[in-house]
Predict the 3D structure of the following.
Amino acid sequence: MGLLSDPNRRRALISLLTRLNTPICLVCYMAGVAWFMGLAFEPFTLRTYMSENAMGSTMVEERFPAGERALATGREFAAHKKKVGGMPVDWLVKTMQARGLEVFTQSFSRTLPFPDENKERYMVKGTNVYGILRAPRAPRTEALVLSAPCSPGDNNQAVGLLLGLAQYFRNQIYWAKDIIFLVNEHDLIGMQAWLEGYHHTNTTGMDWSPLQGRGGSIQAALSLELSSDVITSLDLVLEGLNGQLPNLDLANLFYAFCQKIGVLCTIQGKLQRNDWDSVSGYSHAVQTMMLMVMKQASGRPWGDHGLFLRYHIEAATIKGINSFRQYKTDATTIGRLLEGMYRKLNNLLERLHQSYFFYLMPSLSHFVSIGYYMPAFGLLTVILLLRETHIFTGRYLSIYSACIGNSPLLIKYVSSQQSSPGVLSVLTPLVISHLTGVALYTLPIRFQEMAVEHFPVSETEAVVLTAIAVYTAGLALPHNTHRFLSGEGTEQGWRVLKLVAVLYLAVLLGCTALINFSLGFILALTLVPVAAFVTPHIPKVLSAFILVILSPACTLLFSVFFFQELQEMPVSFQDGWLLYLSVISQGILDHFLYGSLVYPLIALLVYPCWLLFWNILFWK
Amino acid sequence: MLALCASQLTAILDMNLLAFSSRNYIKHDNAGQFFSSGHTNNWAVLVCTSRFWFNYRHVANTLSVYRSVKRLGIPDSHIVLMLADDMACNHRNPKPATVFSHKNMELNVYGDDVEVDYRGYEVTVENFLRVLTGRLPPSTPRSKRLLSDDRSNILIYLTGHGGNGFLKFQDSEEISNVELADAFEQMWQKRRYNELLFIIDTCQGASMYERFYSPNLMALASSQVGEDSLSHQPDLAIGVHLMDRYTFYLLEFLEDIHPASKTNMNDLFKVCPKSQCVSTPGHRTDLFLRDPGSVLITDFFGSVRKVEITMETINLTDPINSFR
């Protein structure tokens, strides 16, 4: 008979799993972490390569000549921007029309749920200006986008280069797709308004005027951030909203052109190193990968490109960085790089789909695909399943052992006694935890006015502090839910609750990891030990402390400090705390402005799940 | 019977004597040599099976052979040109209305007198096989038909993406080497060719002629089974590879041929050795009745009329006089 169908062998297997449960769990946890750390080790990664046949190699001749003129245009733009005190709409319209583009504007306004530090006001109003370069011979079915955000006091060179490229592109006849040159105001808000207007959707409740001109379905988009006349390296930003990434072919294209033209290119701001077999080389790769994981887990768009990804448009942001290096690149070279990229994107016949959509990059020339990094998460989830079987067979075995030496009548009595805390007893802590989660989600925004009246804080701080207050108040719950609980204090009660909670956590983490692997993995790292080892019998104070350390809020706090460390900008505790508060407010704002899912996920699902374990800890 | 045909032909050709150049002057009257090759007309079926801009080189390949074949004398009415995509007028072409075969744009093989018979989505396996076997609907125009007879020498050139035993048509279907061999057998049984030269420039091209079993077939391929045929050179201004290596060197070889050349097939077999082509070109002559050394290039690539100038006057009989 087979291993699983033979009752004797099954019993032996189950008793093995039950006996060795803790060691196996520990081994799985270490294996999961080791697997994840090993992803950055170069022999385990693959070199990047162009998968799309239509894009082929970098064999185009770039001939963009007008870098200096582009910079002069950028200076003009800066002057007009200062004069108008915002976006110089009329000047932009005039300049784009002079370059032969079809120019349109879009005005938008948005009421923020609470004013954040950047905006300092409730209502944000702005105008986007975009010009369409129509393909000379092609039907207007497809488009490419080149955008540069109009930031106050910054990014002028990018707008100048955008206008210079527009003029150059206008003189070429080989465009098969329309090219849209977009200058958006207020960064992400403007970009969201433009995208919603372009695709006729209204998902975030913004007010915008409809777009008068359109260009067909957008195949790819690039966003430029360039703040100095000469740069030393180009940084590629890939992480988008909710941890979505563009197709790897876009990164491959960028890298291929960087190599061809000879520009220094980085990802996460870190240069590539060749010494993968040394410890420092490996730690460098790990740092780069961890930066990507952190950025992806935060779920916020790290560039204007992040909002395109939701519409299945592959997009990336290219940032020009001016650090102290000897070799400097001028605007003409950057223009040529962009020209080359756009000529290759022009050759596309379908959307980019040949390469990976889920990957991690320890460096710009190496990547790890989903097939390689998922087992790390799988090993962590296996721990939860092992604990499930442990609890389940624990109940089963206890009933079984009770049955072995007793008469049938006693068996019935024992089993009826032990199965009395049924599903309904579990329901109460579940409902209460989720109600707390709902409170955490809705109260901060709703009561910010009341908080501002009573306390001397700004709106942003009010929201954040209310959130933290609700979170901490939730910790007091176990002492209150016991009054509603019928099965309180019984052995079986907390086992059933733990069964449900572990299953719930496993499903939650699994779904999260599918959408946003980094978020799922980080939550798994902290919550799986909690789920595995919490029982009412472990020492209360110590385990309460550990549970709080491993709760989502503290994970976020540590992540903030860790992130700053990775970027080689370590902060003191004061600054770190302020940064933490701003991260929370930004997360809440991202949710209301762009539909980021991290805040509702944490508030409505992860936090209640953690509260269930907190409940179990204080069962007695 | 051969002598009768010879004299009739001489009489008709006498009328158009001045149209032919004196290079075709043969001194002695030798009927045997006149028909040493056995064919009286030449046809060419040139097929490019790939579409999309990045397959520019396949169209350039086919047009190069088309250009050579036209230059050596086969008229458009005897050429069936099938191009699966329009590169000259593609939106991405920075030099519209041209297809270049050499970088620096030295040679525009599109020219201004190209006649494409099957274009775009008309290039399918079914249409190709119908052209070969002649099973076309009655409404098909003459330009789309292969109206060959049992005295026709046919050149068939195929290029595109292929594999072991198949050739891909337009990203959606394939023709297998078995189908091709059967089509040629149908042609033989319907006496639609005298001799047939089959050239294929794809990856693993030699697999396409493995299954031939009809007589009088000679085949050349750009690579053996398991090898890829490589492209020759990219043009940075246009942004694509312009030609495949085998056809590039074939074109170079054919540019040296003129209608009076006596170059024979053995020289064609030597085109593009492994040092230039990276792949190993192959050929197959076991089904061919004549010795390849005695087969002239112009027997397939050109349409050479052998002219014999006669000095004697022939008196035509009365009925023909009144007809004139």
